[in-house]
Amino acid sequence: MMIVFTSYGAWAQSQTAMNMNAGSAYEKADKELNAVYRKILKEYAAQPQFIKKLKVAQRLWIQLRDAELAAKYPERGSYGSVAPMCESIYLETLTKERTKFLRMWLTGIPEGDVCAGSVKSK
Q: What pLDDT sits at residue 91?
């Protein structure tokens, strides 16, 4: 049986290198998430109630992210040498999804949306 990995340049890399590349990709996604989060905090600084609730939501999202990872890989240490790569890829995916969601507060939504809540209008 032949297993082919096409992500993270797997063709000529050791598993250690692929683990490191996946970890770096996750770190990059996490930095982007934090940049978006900080920008929201700055742009919405005049709305303390929103900021307070966003901070709670972000802390809970981190707990959810960690629980999702634990659910996907419940037997830590038993997935072999690919485990760090697989975990990083999953964390990167979850983090990019969260970043996309949070970005809504920066890009805004169409004016007139009656369900806009705390999100600014475009």
A: 99
